[in-house]
Design a protein that fits this description.
Blueprint lengths: L1 H19 L1 H36 L6 E6 L18 H7 L7 E7 L8 E3 L2 E3 L2 E5 L3 H4 L4 E4 L4 H5 L4 E4 L1 H7 L10 E4 L2 E9 L5 H5 L11 E5 H8 L6 E6 L5 H15 L6 E5 H44 L1 H9 L4 H38 L7 H27 L3 H6 L2
Parallel strand pairs: 5-10, 7-9
Antiparallel strand pairs: 1-11, 1-12, 2-11, 3-4, 3-8, 6-9, 7-10, 8-9
Helix pairs in contact: 1-12, 2-10, 2-12, 2-13, 10-12, 10-13, 12-13
């Protein structure tokens, strides 16, 4: 109990010393505040960047897996074969139980010739894909209006389509609900049964990677119809949904292995998974965070040197006070603790100020740029811990010097 009382008194003494030297204390904590604010902002940018990228990648379906023929395969022992290497029979096989890591699978059929898309005298340059009823779930597509495909519409080659929001605005600018309207694709009439919800891929578009298409400027139709247009039963590529994000790579490998066994090595296949993109994003953001922390550490180092310099000055100015306190019974440990407490208090106050600056700066950047800066509890705790460590490190040697004086020697000095 007595030790606790002594500790409280020493902290009060440290606060009194800081109040008596407000300007000096303020100058010393500015560097700490800037450094902690920088660490906080870097952490928030990293967390916000990950959330932002995740939201855009979710527009593809996070568990999505793509399998396509590897056209770069140049094995001289393999006879050159035409076609995509993916047929209707492959889809039937892969839709069974041969790939445990795969939940859903859809063929993607692309038209082999350019098709004119129009409604009256209005035209659209939308991309066209033939898909099955499972595609919307795989691709994380939601309906703004209408509904998705039914299996019987796929099997019966019904002339029905789903359109993106841009297509709806281009072809039906004055129509609030285009469901039931008919548009022409390649001269044939198709009934609109659904409008897809808007998808944002602003970040991916800004870096030149938006999945090869505008997510809002596309038309989906039964894949059996596109096969009929093309005059063959080939599949351009496959898009599947893994059971979980962790099993995405395994799902892609299983699909490839089944296809290679079925075609007896006649074709080679390549794979793409969003899981691999996520790992790349995490590595990039991790690198950015590391560089930011290194840059922020420079500010902390400068702040720490400032605290050390000011505490050294304080020790010189208060030598006589140290001697008096030792003469009336203060121990070396108490003197050491007092000066360490002053250094740590300066750093902690600077740390709290830095955290507040970081939060305010994050909010302003979010308002101005729309980029979410998300402070994390770990980032806040690390900031506070770093401020305490900086205080201890910068105050230790001045405190040691203060505690090392002999009472007689300290009292003799003016």
């Amino acid at each position: 109990m007595n030790q606790l009382y002594v500790s409280i008194e020493l902290i009060k003494e440290a606060l009194r010393a800081l109040r008596e030297n407000r300007l000096r204390s303020l100058l010393s904590l500015v560097g700490i505040a800037i450094g902690i604010a920088a660490v906080m902002t870097v952490s928030a940018v990293s967390s916000g960047g990950k959330v932002f990228v995740m939201k855009e990648l979710e527009t593809f379906g996070l568990r999505s897996v793509w399998v396509i023929r590897d056209y770069n395969d140049k094995d001289p022992n393999r006879r050159v074969r035409m076609g995509s290497g993916l047929m209707q029979q492959d889809l039937a096989l892969l839709s069974g139980d041969c790939c445990p890591a795969v939940r859903n699978i859809s063929p993607i059929i692309l038209p082999e010739k350019r098709l004119i898309i129009q409604w009256g005298n209005r035209y659209s340059n939308a991309s066209i894909k033939g898909v099955n009823a499972a595609f919307l779930a795989i691709n994380n597509d939601r309906m703004k209006q209408g509904r998705g495909f039914r299996e019987q519409e796929i099997d019966a080659r019904r002339p029905v389509v789903l359109i993106g929001e841009t297509v709806s605005k281009d072809l039906f600018p004055q129509v609030e609900n285009p469901i039931g309207r008919h548009l022409r694709i390649g001269g044939r009439k198709y009934r609109v049964i659904g409008v897809l919800e808007y998808k944002s891929r602003d970040l991916l578009a800004s870096i030149g990677s938006e999945g090869g298409e505008d997510a809002n400027n596309r038309i989906l139709m039964p894949y059996t119809l596109v096969q009929q247009m093309n005059g063959n039963r080939e599949i351009s590529y496959l898009q599947a949904e893994a059971v979980s994000l962790q099993l995405a790579e395994r799902a892609a490998t299983q699909l490839k292995q089944v296809l290679q066994r079925r075609h007896r090595g006649a074709y080679q296949y390549s794979q793409v998974t969003l899981a691999s993109y996520l790992k790349t994003v995490e590595r990039i953001l991790g690198g950015i965070t590391a560089m930011g922390v290194v840059a922020a550490s420079t500010s902390l180092l400068v702040g720490g040197i400032g605290v050390a310099g000011i505490m050294s000055t304080a020790v010189v100015e208060r030598i006589r006070e140290i001697g008096v306190r030792m003469a009336i019974g203060a121990t070396r440990r108490q003197i050491l603790f007092q000066f360490l407490a002053e250094a740590v208090l300066i750093s902690v106050i600077g740390g709290f100020a830095g955290l507040m600056i970081g939060l305010i700066l994050g909010g302003l950047l979010d308002l101005v740029t729309g980029f979410p800066l998300i402070p994390t509890s770990s980032g806040i705790l690390v900031g506070l811990l770093v401020s305490v460590l900086v205080g201890l490190a910068s105050g230790y040697f001045p405190a040691q010097r203060a505690a090392g004086f002999l009472p007689v020697e300290a009292l003799r000095r003016e």
